Amino acid sequence: MEKHQLFTPYYYVDEALLINNLKILKSVKKRSGAKILLAQKAFSMFSLYPLIAQYLDGTTASSLHEVKLGHDEFGGETHIFSPAYIDREFEEILENCEHMVFNTPTQWSKFRARALAAGIDCGLRINPEYSTQEHDMYDPAAAGSRLGTTLGNFDETLLEGLSGLHFHTLCEQNSDALKETLVIIEEKFGKYLPDMKWLNFGGGHHITRADYDIETLVSEVIRIQNKYNLQVYLEPGEGVVLNTGFLETTVIDFVENSGVMNAILDTSATTHMPDVIEMPYRPFIIGSGEAGEKVYTYRLGGPSCLAGDVIGDYSFDHPLEIGEVLTFTDMAHYSMVKNNTFNGIGLPSIAIKRASGEMELVKSFGYEDFKMRLS
């Protein structure tokens, strides 16, 4: 299918860019000895799992549905972590994973016997209570966090049956933040590491970003593995598909109010890229500039009735026209997995731009997808 035959809005993932990222991750694996898992919470477009599985070791999940998807469509190692497992789902989870991480001593005590009897490799998530970021919503180490077991709640009776420990404190960060965190991990929990088979560094590693310090990551992985004789896991999601996805949208109208020229698009921040509002952040549009940087400035918003459905202020070298197509970048991670049908707004189609240049439609959505969600 040719690109112009797709109706906007639609996401697409560029296969060639994805392969470039995967080659970087494969190099990190080879040089460091780490195993790398795809964190499906960021990206669960399973039509690309066969490609990704050629480079990575498996998947990690945060729910029953994710663990089943990883098991059925990706293969390799299937890991899961949940802040609290639901009893009625637990047996089915056991059938679909090999590694399971528990969040609290209570959860570990409740499910330990069943998990070990099923032959599951079990771990406990630890919380070093050390933050290296300022995004409270995405900071598992913040004061009062419900994620992970702090040293104050850790005792040695928890060790029986555990194969590993897991921590996750980073968000879109470089390896200097990991290095800082590992100092605290070793200070607080280092005495338990010689008895572990593995240590999971969690996600939030922006490994495929151009300025990422891969040398520090590799050296820290090697240091920890050699010092404690264990296997290190990394579980990036965003880092796997960083800068590989795009969202195409069309200008459908203009509204001038109090000196602000609004351009209404057929895509929405609140429905199609919720992190624009939640994070918040301003996604880049190819050919655009900051407000006032270029000649023509517009406030871009979506077609929903939410007053705050605003993507941001952008400037262009030419006046926008109704029917003009704009391209948002870096839309593979989180946008697709978090989108919704608020206001009955249709979900964007999903496509792959193959390395050959061919655009392949993977999935499209219609009225029934909206209708059948709630009744």
From TrEMBL:
Residues annotated as binding substrate: E238, D275
Molecular function in Gene Ontology: diaminopimelate decarboxylase activity
EC number: 4.1.1.96
GO biological process, one term: lysine biosynthetic process via diaminopimelate
Record domain Orn/DAP/Arg decarboxylase 2 C-terminal: where: 169-331
The keyword Transcription regulation belongs to this UniProt entry's keyword annotation: no
Keyword line: Decarboxylase, Lyase, Pyridoxal phosphate, Spermidine biosynthesis
SUPFAM superfamilies named among the record's database cross-references: Alanine racemase C-terminal domain-like (SSF50621), PLP-binding barrel (SSF51419)
Reported cofactor(s): pyridoxal 5'-phosphate
Name this protein carries in UniProt: Carboxynorspermidine decarboxylase
